[in-house]
Amino acid sequence: MGCVHGKGAASHSSNTRQNRKSNKRREELTIEEAPAAADRPVVVPEFRLRIGADAAATEAWPPWLVAVAGDEIKGWKPRLANTFDKIAKQIVGLGNNVAQIGQGAYSNVYKARDLVTGKVVALKKVRFDNFDPEALRFMAREILVLRRLNHPNVIKLEGLVISRMSSSLYLVFEYMEHDLAGLSAAQSANFTEDRVKCYMKQLISGLEHCHSNGVLHRDMKCSNLLIDNQGILKIADFGLASFFNPESKKPMTSRVVTLWYRPPELLLGATHYGAGVDLWSVGCVLAELLAGRPILRGRTEVEQLHKIFKLCGSPPEEFWKKSSLPDTTLYKPQHPYKCCIRETFKDFPLSSLALIETLLAVDPRTRGTAAAALKSKFFTTEPFACEPSSLPKFPPTKEMDLKLRDEAARRKRGIRRKSNITDGLRRARAHNKAIRANPVLEANTQLQTNLSRLRVGRGRSEKFPPPHQDGAVGHTMSFADDASFASSMRRRRNGDKEPHSAPPRCFINALCQSTIVCSVDFRFGRR
Fold first, then answer.
1. Where is the signal peptide (predicted)?
2. Angle between helical axes of 350-359 and 276-291 (0-180°, round to 10)
3. Most buried among 40, 370, 426, 478, using CB within 10 Å?
């Protein structure tokens, strides 16, 4: 019994501790940033502590974060998730409020308010799928890159937010009302030449700062170029960014840059590249702003490379012979192409065509630099770039909002189409039911007409049959001694063919009200 009581006491003590833990967890789950079921803590793999992570940082930051990004977070103090409040907005066509303003390969971006300062910020939640080493590496490198860069046209990292109950990590950025993709798609945004020059000048200035600090963005596109209400453009989303050294022989991955903005050397599998990959993407952005749409919209890598060669020209034969790229034999065109940028975009400003041809050169060595692009005639000829403060003000417009609106519109069209199909089926069923309900009247009317037609004969005996036939149609009678009946059934010869009266059973069917079809025919035969 003593053993039993001891076990019961131990069990009661353990249950009490578990209840306390569960109550504590319920209290922490009341904050808005409480993790979902997918964000439950998972087993963290053991990492070797990086040099530069001191004891204070180890206590303040989660151990897994110190293990992979100890140098990057050194000197910073973490913020807790419950000190921020997400700001939801209503999207037309969607029934729920949406706080998400962006999405990346490993992250989601939300609009939130700092409860300490009252400032509106953007929270980038980094997703970790069971602590994928690649995701951790990109996250640590993004933090390091952002801490190294400091330019008015580069997004600024303001802090890091951790959650006590999960492995989630939030990067805090300044909030920007627009992105270039959303503005270019908006009908109210008219991109005149001076406005295009204003945006492009800021873009290339920020890119020149990145390259001078040895940073490749590797995902330059309109949706990653953010704009605030003062007209300031900032380069954002450094999730695929990397450091580069022109003299380094260390290979890099070619699976970067969104397909429509990817240069040909990456499509051919290059693993050694430099600033030219970003300059190609800048050329695509410039042409997109002037054309009002993306200029190279391939669905596959093969199609994308084919579109590039048709517009920008294919490399000379010497390039294919000397090239060491792995996929040159697969993508070599059967016939050479010449550059036709000027013919394709003949409506563009003349000063822009030279810059576009330089940035979209198939050979990355001839694309120049960002500093050289700022000195091109595109920026030194009239009309000059306008001041950012003179740009018109627009309501908040982001690519994510456009996608949500399109999704809501597609959903609404699908509901309307389904409703139309349902109504059509309902009307068809009602019509078929009406047809099945009233067939007898029409059939009997036709039968009565046929019967009247049969009664109309050439002889008096055929028009007015004897009483014994008319009153007992179809019944067997003895009419051998009845001369009047014999006269009514007398045959009339007409050549070799003779008409006969229809059998009595046809007339019985004709008088039946439930009859729908009754065939009455004349038989011709020899006597």
1. none
2. 150
3. 370
CA distance 152 to 207: 11
Six-digit token string for 320? 């294919």
Distance CA 349, CA 297 (A): 22
Do both 323 and 251 map to the same domain? yes
Question: Which residue, among 371, 327, 378, has the nearest Cα to 357 in the 3D structure?
Answer: 378
Q: Which helix (H) or strand (E) holds 121?
A: strand 120-126
Among 368, 400, 432, give the residue marking a domain's end.
400
Q: How far apart are CA 131 and CA 109, in angstroms?
A: 19
Lookup result for tokens 């600024």: 156
Most confident of 7-16, 31-40, 167-176, 446-455: 167-176
Residues 461 and 354 in one domain: no
Q: What is the pLDDT of residues 126-143, one digit of tens each?
A: 876 666 777 778 888 899
* Residue 426 maps to a domain: no
Residues 157 and 184 in one domain: no
**How many angstroms separate the CA atoms of 325 and 226, rounded?**
35
Final residue in a domain of this structure, among 139, 174, 209: 174
Return the CATH number at 116.
3.30.200.20
Same domain (yes/no): 185, 99: no
- Of 80, 111, 115, 81, the closest CA to residue 98 belongs to 111
Catalytic residue among 114, 219, 278, 401: 219
Cα 128-130-136 angle, rounded to 5 deg: 45
Are 217 and 311 in a shared domain?
A: yes
CA distance 228 to 234: 9
Number of domains in the chain: 3
Q: Would you list the DSSP string of 456-494?
A: --SSHHHHS--HHHHSSTT-----TT-HHHHHHT----B
Share of the chain above pLDDT 90, in %: 38
Residue 239 falls inside a structural domain: yes
**151: confidence class by pLDDT, cuts 50, 70, 90:** very high
Instruction: Specify whether 278 is catalytic.
Output: no
**pTM value?**
0.66
The structure tokens 């050549």 sit at: 495
The pLDDT-based confidence of 7 (bands split at 50, 70, 90) is very low
Q: Is the CB of residue 189 less than 8 Å from the CB of residue 396?
A: no
Taking a C-beta distance cutoff of 8 angstroms, is the pair 486, 479 a contact?
yes
Q: Exposed/middle/buried for 491, CB within 10 Å: 0-12, 13-18, 19+?
A: exposed
Identify the domain containing residue 481 by its residue range.
442-525
Residue 254 DSSP label: S
Query: Residue 94 domain-assigned?
Result: yes
Q: What is the pLDDT of residues 242-290, one digit of tens each?
A: 999 988 889 999 999 999 999 999 999 999 999 999 999 999 999 999 9
Q: Assess whether 143 and 201 both reside in one domain.
A: no
Q: Is residue 223 part of a domain?
A: yes
H helices, E strands: number in the chain: 21, 16
Any binding-site annotation on 201? no
Q: Do 71 and 191 share a structural domain?
A: no
Q: Rounded to whole angstroms, how far apart are CA atoms 12 and 92?
A: 54
